[in-house]
Write a structure and sequence with these properties.
Layout: E1 5-8, E2 14-20, H1 23-36, E3 48-56, H2 59-77, E4 79-90, H3 104-114, H4 121-124, E5 134-144, E6 157-158, E7 164-168, E8 171-179
Antiparallel strand pairs: 1-2, 2-8, 3-5, 4-5, 6-8, 7-8
Helix pairs in contact: 1-2
Length: 180
């Protein structure tokens, strides 16, 4: 699979489809697709590393949290992603790497979990009660912002809108929308 990602028509935000021979490669290419909206990741010197570990109750939520973490690293540490060096996914028992079925009930539960005020006091005060069966750990390589880099635009957030994960003949396709 030669193409890393492509952008698709979307009215106000940016929609992309990332590809990979493996699910991990598709996830890494989704991160590159998002940051390509903000800077030229091919021009970023790979001088610094950031480690990320994410847990979620669905693959969709895992992806939104992963891209949100990359945005956080840029906003707080001014870290510019140039390459996803290592990535490891842990999926629950019985979940195939060949397809992800979108479950609206789980999606709505994930959205409520993001805002503890919507949870019962027992769960809000003990987030360990929330089942976090999906996990991602990654080593991100890049550099910290300086005048040598140009910021093209701003991505405000990763969204759940139009999320699609598919098994395709050459591997995986992962579609997401980010808020510009």
């Amino acid at each position: 699979m030669d193409k890393k990602f492509e952008f698709l028509p979307h009215t106000a935000d940016a929609k992309f489809r990332a590809y990979g021979k493996t699910l991990e490669e598709a996830v890494a290419n989704a991160a590159l697709a998002m940051v390509s909206l903000m800077w030229d990741y091919d021009q970023v010197e790979l001088k610094a590393k950031e480690e990320v570990e994410i847990k979620a109750s669905s693959f969709e939520s895992l992806m939104v949290k992963f891209l949100t973490e990359i945005l956080y690293l840029f906003e707080v540490k001014r870290f510019l992603l140039g390459k996803v060096e290592q990535i490891k996914l842990e999926l629950p028992d019985g979940v195939s790497r060949h397809q992800e079925r979108r479950d609206e009930k789980n999606k709505k539960a994930d959205e409520r979990r993001e805002d503890n005020t919507r949870l019962s006091p027992q769960v809000a005060n003990n987030p360990g009660n929330i089942n976090q069966d999906y996990a991602l750990s990654a080593t991100l390589a890049g550099d910290y912002y300086s005048d040598k880099y140009e910021i093209i635009s701003e991505v405000k957030a990763a969204t759940y809108n139009d999320f699609v994960l598919e098994k395709v003949p050459d591997g995986f396709s992962l579609q997401m929308v980010v808020d510009m």
